[in-house]
Each structure stands twice: as structure tokens, then as C-alpha cells.
């Protein structure tokens, strides 16, 4: 896998995963979507969040191998988390929409 | 005094953190810039303008080695070592280094690789380039003493990381929390978020940093079993050849070219350095170091090296060959070497280097917010830690904070300017550049001591932002090269340095605007902020 493409994939998988875990918390669910999440929704968000983080780790290790993959995964996980945390208070809705809008926006350069 | 565990950890984190944070910030900032030491050197040496670098061939390397050997025989027929640095893309000069004996000064000259004559000062832009940041990072330009100071600070960092986790009461509830515009609360949130979210990186980089110098930091075993002879210890550890003591029998070093070519063939790499140990003595040995290839076995972390070949200089007998990217000496050494590779980012190419760069900057920001938080807290409600001297001690801490954070950033970008503005024919130009870097840093301390705290921050940040934003301009004025030209010719290293400088300039500009807006509404905001626990 092309390393730059891997960066892109793993970053957004991490971002999506963290966003899921974040929205599963009352404080941030209120901040982004208003109202507290019900128990089923919390479970789904958590499950999706952890699964995406796992998928990101697998993708990362596909691209870099199991020696360097986890290093890159930790790095991208930290970056995605910093991005999310510092975006949330300023543009909570946008922070959530980013997982929908972001990937297609960044995608074109890879196919030029 | 009765204290809970968390309270004593809080004390440890606050005060242990404070005294070491200034030096740790310097280590983090320069180390992070050092991730890109090659691009920075590339920019500083104006390599982007050289349209094509002459390909090195076995023939050109042979000629260079012969010229260097002729030169060294004249200068120092007997020497503890000679070292010949062969020209490459980044360094077109032929470099020779030697030391006549232990304790004698270390000598260094730059030769023309075609004629073997000494290069005149001023013919090229002599500079340490990005290497300056790397040396600052691990030894503060202070040799072994610096390595020990950095080591102590590194241990303090590990203590601060662990105590910080203990002190942080709501690590999971507050995992995604940052509340801006709330004064002290925001600084604490920022400090926590930066620290917690980059924790894996911070632990990794701090611990591996310590492990690199294990033989220096923990010398007891070598002192006891090998009488302090590190060479003998490492020879045994790496299953390498035994050290060769001086025989004190004169023996001229024969032509180095055949040995270099044999070495290159043995390790299947071009030679980068040819080193002669004990030149002029019967015990002389020739060591060939291969050129580092970051792309070879790029998915492996273990044993990232470029290979060496060792010959008896007089008889030409092969003493030892180590192929590139191999490890010797068992699992312990392999583990240590892997940690070195992790620390030096000698893998993964640019994507991983950028991850290290951004994580390192987040770490530096975490240290800076911690130091600032200390004063923000005490500006609001002064403590009484130093009795009647407290206000004066606070003033000193505030000044050092400013110079250690804003001042160092100013000195770092000033170093780029100094590189462009210092005349080319100054003697010892590379050293002068570094001295001027320290001069700028000292000036920021004087400035911070003389100006009111907020003014000092604002002025130093403004100067840093200005120098960052106008870096491409000074490059254009002094060398005629500019960002657009670099982009057009696909010179990512030159363009990367300048674009990064602009990005930092914009960040500092935003920080300035924030500071100025805050100063208007500060009184209101701090009055409304809730009482904060921890820190």
C-alpha cells in the first residue's frame, strides 16, 4: 500500500473511531448532537469506535508491517485525537461532519 | 504534614516539573527540529540551487581517498586516527579529520575532491546546518557534561509523566475535553490534552532517549569487569574483533584505495567514511563505513545500520565484516539498537518523520503550557512558597519561562537568519553561527528580565512570528532563491523548510492576537473561572 494513502486511511479510521468513543459520552453527545444518548446508542457508538481503531491498527500494519505499523498507528491516533479535541469546542458540528466530508475531500490527489 | 499520595505526587509534578521544564522544552524543541536535520542542512547549504550533483563512482571515490591520504600523511603521519568523509549529495567537499593522540585537539579540513587542495573559507556557506539542533538536543553543545544534564532531565521527564498521570483525576472523563477562553482552566485542559493524547509517543521518546546512552549513564559494570575499557567491553558484547593496542613500531599506511574497494564489495554499499585507526603504527586498522540507505529493508526496526568492514592496514587481512542492517551481540543489544532506531526515526520515510515532528511539537507545547500554567495559577492567587522572597522568585521564574519558551523559539528561527546574513568568509563560520544562536537566546533572557512579563511575551512572540513569516524573503534577498522556484523545481526540502516556517509564523501570529484579545477581557474571565484543583 502506498504510504501516503495509508496515512490518509489510518488517520480517518482513527478519527472516526475516536469520534465514536467521544460521542458515546454524555458530555460530548450534548455538545455535538444535543441530548444524552440512550443506552443502545452508546453501545453502538462504543463498539463502532473501538472497531474502527482496531481496523486502523490492521491497516497501518498492512502498510508498514507489524514492526513499524503500530508506531505509525500510535502517531496517527495521537494526531487524530489532538485534532478532534481542539476542534470540538470551536466547531462541534464540524468536528462530527469532518468524518463524512473529510475523506472524499482529501481523496482526489491520490487519483490524479 | 499529612498528605495523600496524590497530594505528594502533585507537589512532585509541580516543582519537579518546573525546575526541569525549561531544559526539557529546549530538548524537545531542538530534538523535534532535528527530525528534519537533513532538510534544514539542505536549506542552509543552498543545495536546492545546485541543479545536479555529480554522481559518485568508484573511480571518483578512489581519487578522493588517494588525495585525502596524501594530505593526511603530510599533516599527521602518526595519528590516533584519520577519518576521510567522502563527498556526497549534501556535502560536495572531501572532508578529513584527525587527532594526533588522545587529548590533542581534534582537527578538521575541507578539501577539493578533484585537486586535494584546502578549500578557501567563503567558497561555500560553511554551517553545522540542522546538526546544530541535534547536538543541542542530546548534549546542549556541552559534551559529556551536557549528556549528563540531558540524562537527568530525561529521568525528571519520566517522573513528571508518571506523577502527571497520578495527579490527573479524570483522565478518561476528560479525555476529549478542552474548554477554551477560561483562563487557568483552559491552560490546564490544554496541558492535559496535549500530554494524555501523545502519551505513547512521550513515553517512547523519553525512555528510548535514555537508553541510547546506557553505557555512559550506567558505567559501573564496565568499570568493574573491564577496568572502564569500553572498547574491550563492546568488542566482547558485539562479538567483534578485540581492540588493537598501539605497538609503537613505525609502519606507513599503504594505499587505501584497494581496501576501500574490498570493503565496498564486502558490505555491498558505497563507502561514506574511510577511517584509519593508529595511522603510522604497526597496529593500524582501516574501517570502511557504508552509506546509509533509508529505503533498504524499510519495514524493519531491528538493526538499522549501514555496514562496516575492518582490515589490518598493513597486511590487508580482513579482520571483520558487518553487513548492513544486521545485528550482532544477542537479544539485549538488538533490543537496545531497536530502541535507538525508534528514537532516531531511521525508518518509515517522510510520513513517519512528520508524525514524530508533530508529536514532538505537541510534547513541546505540553511542556510550555505546563510552565505557563504554573505562573498563571500564581498570578491569580500568589502562594507563599518562598516566604518574603516569593514575589521576587516569581518574577525570576516568569522571566526564565519567557526566555526558555518564546526566547528559544526566537533563537531557533534567528539561527536560520544568521545562516543567511553572516558573511561567508568569516573564520570558523559554523561555530560563529552557533555562538550567535546562543547570543540571541541570552538577549531574550535579558529582555525578559527587563520588560514587564506580558510585554516580554508579546514582543518575543511577535519577533519570532515576524522572522518565521519573512524567512523566504531573506532567502530571496541573500541567495536569489525563493519558495516558488523551489516548488517549481520540485525541491521539497527547501520548500518544506520555508513553508513550515510560514506555518509556525501563522501559529505565533494567532497566539499573539489571542494574547492581545485576552488582555482586554482577562479580569472578567479570571473572576468567572471556577476554582481549579490539581495541576
Structure, explained:
The complex is a heterodimer of chains A (112) and B (535). Chain A is mainly α and 112 residues long. In chain A, 83% of the residues lie in helices and 0% in strands. Chain B has 535 residues and is α+β, with helices and mostly antiparallel strands. Chain B has a domain at 5-46 and 133-197 and 346-528. Chain B has 19 helices and 7 strands. Chain B has helices at 5-34, 37-44, 58-75, 131-139, 143-167, 184-197, 199-212, 214-217, 220-226, 230-237, 257-267, 330-344, 349-380, 390-421, 429-450, 453-469, 471-479, 483-488, 492-528; strands at 79-85, 94-99, 107-111, 271-279, 285-290, 308-312, 318-322. Chain B has a 7-stranded antiparallel sheet, covered by helices on one side. In chain B, strand 4 (271-279) and strand 5 (285-290) form a beta hairpin. The relative contact order of chain B is 0.12. At the A-B interface, helix 1 and helix 3 of A face helix 6, helix 7 and helix 13 of B.
Distance between the termini of chain A: 17 Å
Principal-axes geometry of chain B comes out as: globular
Total number of strands of chain B: 7
- The tally of structural domains of chain A comes to 1
The whole-angstrom Rg of chain A is: 14 Å
Oligomer state equals heterodimer
Beta fraction of the residues of chain A?
under 5%
What's this entry about, in short?
Chain A: This is DUF3325 domain-containing protein. The complex is a heterodimer of chains A (about 110) and B (about 525). Chain A has about 110 residues and is mainly α.
Secondary-structure map with pairings?
The complex is a heterodimer of chains A (112) and B (535).
Chain A: H1 3-23, H2 26-33, H3 39-87, H4 92-106
Chain B: H1 5-34, H2 37-44, H3 58-75, E1 79-85, E2 94-99, E3 107-111, H4 131-139, H5 143-167, H6 184-197, H7 199-212, H8 214-217, H9 220-226, H10 230-237, H11 257-267, E4 271-279, E5 285-290, E6 308-312, E7 318-322, H12 330-344, H13 349-380, H14 390-421, H15 429-450, H16 453-469, H17 471-479, H18 483-488, H19 492-528
Amino acid at each position: 500500500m502506498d504510504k501516503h494513502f495509508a496515512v490518509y486511511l489510518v488517520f480517518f479510521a482513527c478519527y472516526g473511531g475516536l469520534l465514536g468513543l467521544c460521542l458515546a459520552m454524555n458530555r460530548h453527545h450534548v455538545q455535538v448532537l444535543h441530548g444524552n444518548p440512550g443506552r443502545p446508542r452508546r453501545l453502538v457508538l462504543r463498539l463502532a469506535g473501538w472497531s474502527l481503531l482496531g481496523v486502523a491498527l490492521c491497516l497501518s500494519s498492512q502498510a508498514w508491517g507489524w514492526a513499524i505499523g503500530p508506531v505509525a498507528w500510535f502517531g496517527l491516533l495521537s494526531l487524530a485525537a489532538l485534532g478532534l479535541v481542539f476542534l470540538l469546542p470551536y466547531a462541534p458540528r464540524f468536528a462530527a461532519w469532518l468524518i463524512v466530508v473529510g475523506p472524499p475531500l482529501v481523496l482526489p490527489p491520490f487519483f490524479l | 504534614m499529612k498528605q495523600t499520595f496524590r497530594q505528594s505526587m502533585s507537589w512532585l509534578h509541580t516543582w519537579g516539573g518546573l525546575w526541569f521544564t525549561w531544559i526539557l522544552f529546549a530538548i524537545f524543541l531542538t530534538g523535534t527540529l532535528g527530525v528534519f536535520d537533513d532538510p534544514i542542512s539542505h536549506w542552509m547549504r543552498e543545495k536546492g540551487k545546485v541543479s545536479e550533483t555529480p554522481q559518485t563512482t568508484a573511480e571518483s571515490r578512489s581519487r578522493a581517498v588517494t588525495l585525502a591520504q596524501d594530505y593526511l600523511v603530510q599533516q599527521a603521519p602518526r595519528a590516533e586516527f584519520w577519518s576521510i568523509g567522502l563527498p556526497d549529495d549534501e556535502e560536495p567537499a572531501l572532508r578529513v579529520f584527525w587527532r594526533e593522540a588522545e587529548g590533542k585537539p581534534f582537527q578538521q579540513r575541507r578539501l577539493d575532491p578533484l585537486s586535494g587542495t584546502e578549500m578557501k573559507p567563503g567558497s561555500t556557506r560553511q554551517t553545522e546546518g540542522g546538526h546544530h539542533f541535534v547536538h543541542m538536543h542530546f548534549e546542549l553543545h556541552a559534551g559529556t557534561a551536557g549528556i549528563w544534564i540531558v540524562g537527568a532531565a530525561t529521568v525528571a521527564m519520566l517522573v513528571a509523566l508518571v506523577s502527571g498521570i497520578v495527579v490527573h483525576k479524570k483522565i478518561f472523563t476528560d479525555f476529549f475535553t478542552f474548554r477554551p477562553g477560561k483562563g487557568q482552566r483552559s491552560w490546564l485542559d490544554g496541558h492535559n490534552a496535549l500530554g494524555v493524547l501523545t502519551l505513547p509517543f512521550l513515553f517512547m521518546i523519553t525512555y528510548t532517549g535514555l537508553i541510547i546512552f546506557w553505557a555512559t549513564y550506567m558505567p559501573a559494570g564496565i568499570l568493574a569487569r573491564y577496568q572502564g575499557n569500553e572498547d574491550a567491553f563492546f568488542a566482547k558484547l558485539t562479538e567483534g574483533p578485540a581492540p588493537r593496542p598501539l605497538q609503537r613500531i613505525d609502519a606507513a599506511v599503504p594505499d587505501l584505495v584497494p581496501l576501500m574497494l574490498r570493503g565496498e564489495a564486502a558490505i555491498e554499499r558505497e563507502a561514506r567514511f574511510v577511517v584509519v585507526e593508529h595511522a603510522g603504527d604497526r597496529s593500524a586498522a582501516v574501517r570502511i563505513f557504508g552509506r546509509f540507505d533509508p529505503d533498504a529493508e524499510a519495514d524493519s526496526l531491528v538493526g538499522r545500520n549501514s555496514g562496516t568492514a575492518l582490515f589490518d592496514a598493513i597486511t590487508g587481512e580482513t579482520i571483520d565484516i558487518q553487513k548492513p542492517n544486521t545485528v550482532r551481540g544477542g537479544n539485549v543489544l538488538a533490543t537496545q539498537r531497536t530502541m535507538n532506531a525508534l528514537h532516531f526515526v531511521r525508518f518509515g520515510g517522510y510520513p513517519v518523520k512528520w508524525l514524530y515532528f508533530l508529536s514532538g511539537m505537541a510534547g513541546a507545547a505540553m511542556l510550555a503550557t505546563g510552565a505557563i500554567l504554573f505562573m498563571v495559577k500564581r498570578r491569580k492567587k500568589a502562594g507563599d512558597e518562598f516566604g518574603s522572597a516569593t514575589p521576587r522568585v516569581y518574577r525570576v521564574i516568569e522571566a526564565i519561562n519567557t526566555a526558555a519558551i518564546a526566547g528559544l523559539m526566537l533563537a531557533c528561527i534567528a539561527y536560520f537568519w544568521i545562516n543567511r546574513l553572516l558573511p561567508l568568509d568569516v573564520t570558523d563560520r559554523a561555530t560563529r553561527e552557533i555562538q550567535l544562536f546562543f547570543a540571541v537566546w541570552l538577549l531574550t533572557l535579558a529582555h525578559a528580565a527587563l520588560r514587564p512579563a506580558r510585554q516580554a511575551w508579546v514582543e518575543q512572540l511577535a519577533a519570532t512570528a515576524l522572522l518565521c513569516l519573512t524567512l523566504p524573503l531573506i532567502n530571496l534577498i541573500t541567495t536569489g532563491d525563493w519558495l516558488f522556484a523551489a516548488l517549481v523545481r520540485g525541491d521539497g526540502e527547501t520548500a518544506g523548510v520555508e513553508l513550515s516556517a510560514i506555518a509556525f509564523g501563522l501559529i505565533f501570529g494567532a497566539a499573539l492576537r489571542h494574547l492581545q484579545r485576552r488582555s482586554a477581557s482577562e479580569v472578567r474571565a479570571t473572576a468567572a473561572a471556577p476554582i481549579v484543583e490539581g495541576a
